[in-house]
Design a protein that fits this description.
Keywords: Carbohydrate metabolism, Glycosidase, Hydrolase. InterPro entries: Alpha-L-AF_C (IPR010720), ASD1_cat (IPR055235), GH (IPR017853), Glyco_hydro_b (IPR013780). It is a single chain. The chain folds into two domains: 3-8 and 385-498, Immunoglobulin-like; 18-380, TIM Barrel, CATH 3.20.20.80. Helix content is 24%, strand content 24%. It has helices spanning 51-60, 106-116, 131-142, 148-155, 184-201, 222-231, 250-253, 256-277, 322-337, 371-380; strands spanning 2-6, 12-15, 22-24, 64-67, 91-93, 98-100, 119-124, 166-169, 206-209, 237-244, 285-293, 342-347, 357-359, 365-367, 384-386, 389-391, 394-395, 403-404, 406-413, 418-425, 432-437, 446-452, 472-473, 478-480, 483-488, 492-498. It has an eight-stranded parallel barrel with strand order 3-4-7-8-9-10-11-12, surrounded by six helices. It has a seven-stranded antiparallel sheet with strand order 2-15-19-20-26-22-23, with helices on one face. Strands 16-1-21-25-24 form a five-stranded mixed sheet, with no helix packed on it. The longest helix has 22 residues, at 256-277. Bound molecules: alpha-L-arabinofuranose.
């Protein structure tokens, strides 16, 4: 099969936003405890943070990290996680049927974020709590001093405010599983009142209203219409969440990003419908703050039940295949391709829980397959996202028909004089020959060409072998006389850098 593209820097979509490369740390399973934080581990620093995980987080190129949940936040009292550690309450975490020791709270996480070099993105509890607690948390985090909450933070060791800009107004409030689940009008009003109060403290905040927790929710669309009707002038972003599962039909699995793109386009329609109905010139954009492959139905470890309320149980510890990594790379291509409306995104999650980074308690930290396309895209996508002209054969899975076999995005950094093409072959069994017209970039040479693929697309990394399948040089990539050609193997993700 063959596909053609044209890369021309005159046709642009928008800037490469660093926030597209965000991730998510929730108090869930072993993401925090024995994930980012494990005092006594040989690699722990003086604050108990695992330096091996910090290093991998930096290598992954993560930019913003959403915290502390997720479903967890809807039952969370942030005050439990501040002050002397030995006096912090131990609580039941109803979302994940676990025990929360509160050893890590907002101050520890802010410290971890600074060490990791990431922007902290906070979520407030609009499940069991409301406006006042959100305002208290904002005062605690962002006011430098002179008020009770800010002085409390100073007394807890942080002299300056954290300057948290992005705030999620609750989490998945459309989901019946959410503690304090609300209908769209109830939530929309609460989100609007909370946003109004938060903006009285700081009008410059970037606020995220909860959108649907998946496009499959029966309320998707109507939820956005009602919530945005209540909040349109008060929020900057609306959230999107979406997970994909390989149910055994590889060709269908490779349609994941096509489905994500359809979701983005639908969500944009719902947002713009409200804008138009309100005759507003303001543009609300998307925070895609949970996305990933998640093999929900194969999950080995189930959420505990009954009298079992463990601390940091192994939950949602998915193992990822090369095919999953190709899908993750494609999802990131899709987020970038929609940079005009997707202004922020968070891979869910960062460590151990459906994560690119895994740890063994007391042992090593290692990379899942999904680590590679994320890290390379974050490192090399820069400047402006270009609008490509694509001619591609179509593919069909068991459910989804006629999606393009080639998924691609290119970025162009005028200052560096470099372009990067990220290309996915979504065909399960056939290679794709790529023929790209690149003359508009001037005379180009290939700086680097790597492909991530494997004969066995189901190969998975493990603690014992995380390095035998890595992105490798693609020797078929050639640039000559305004044309770039490449062979993209079946089920593959590639990055081609040009200068
Ligand atoms: O990321 C895992 C969970 O998925 C989050 O807690 C929740 O928001 C979503 O349903």
């Amino acid at each position: 099969a063959a596909a053609k593209i044209t890369i021309d820097p005159s046709f642009t979509v928008g800037p490469v936003r660093r926030r597209t490369f965000g991730a998510f740390v929730e108090h869930l399973g072993r993401c925090v405890y024995t994930g980012i934080f494990e005092p006594g581990h040989p690699a722990a620093d003086q604050d108990g943070f695992r330096k091996d995980v910090l290093e991998l987080t930096r290598e992954l190129g993560v930019t913003t990290v959403r915290y502390p949940g997720g479903n967890f936040v809807s039952g969370y009292r942030w005050e439990d996680g501040v002050g002397p550690v030995d006096q912090r309450p131990v609580r039941l975490d109803l979302a994940w049927h676990s025990t929360e020791p509160n050893t890590v709270g907002v101050d520890e996480f802010a410290k971890w974020s600074a060490k990791a070099g990431v922007e902290l993105m906070m979520a407030v509890n609009l499940g069991t709590r409301g406006i006042q607690e959100a305002l208290d948390l904002l005062e605690y985090c962002n006011i430098d001093g002179g008020t009770t909450r800010s002085e409390q933070r100073r007394a807890n060791g942080a002299a300056n405010g954290y300057g948290v800009t992005m705030w999620c107004l609750g989490n998945e409030m459309d989901g019946p599983w959410q503690i304090g689940h609300k209908n769209a009008l109830e939530y929309g009003r609460l989100a609007a009142d909370t946003a109004r109060g938060m903006r009285m403290i700081d009008p410059g905040l970037e606020l995220v209203a909860c959108g649907s927790s998946s496009p499959a929710m029966p309320t998707f669309g109507e939820w956005e219409r009602v919530v945005l009707t209540e909040t349109y002038d008060l929020v900057d972003l609306i959230s999107a969440h979406q997970y994909f599962e390989d149910t055994g039909d590889l060709q269908e699995h490779l349609a994941a990003a096509h489905k994500m793109e359809a979701f983005i386009h639908d969500l944009v329609s719902h947002i713009d419908h409200v804008r138009s109905a309100r005759k507003s010139s303001r543009q609300v954009n998307i925070s895609f703050d949970e996305w990933n492959v998640w093999h929900m139905s194969r999950e080995a470890s189930r959420v505990p039940t009954g009298k079992d309320w463990p601390v940091a149980p192994a939950l949602l510890e998915d193992s990822y295949t090369v095919a999953d990594a190709v899908v993750v790379g494609d999802l990131l291509v899709t987020l970038l391709r929609n940079t005009d409306r997707v202004h922020s995104a968070s891979l869910a999650q960062l460590v151990n829980v459906i994560a690119p980074i895994m740890t063994e308690p007391g042992g090593r930290a290692w990379k899942q397959t999904t680590f590679h396309p994320f890290a390379l895209t974050s490192r090399h996508a820069s400047g402006t996202v270009l609008q490509l002209a694509v001619e591609s054969p179509l593919a069909s899975g068991g459910v989804t028909a006629d999606f393009t076999a080639l998924s691609a995005v290119a970025t162009f950094d005028r200052e560096k004089g470099e372009a990067a093409l990220f290309a996915v072959n979504r065909l399960a069994r056939q290679a794709l020959t790529l023929d790209a017209a690149v003359g508009a970039l001037g005379t180009v040479r290939v700086l680097e060409a790597v492909t991530y693929a494997n004969k066995d697309a189901y190969w998975q990394a493990s603690a014992d072998d995380s390095t035998s399948v890595l992105p490798a040089g693609n020797a078929t990539v050639k640039a000559d006389d305004g044309r770039l050609t490449a062979e993209l193997p079946a089920v593959s993700w590639s990055m081609i850098r040009l200068a």
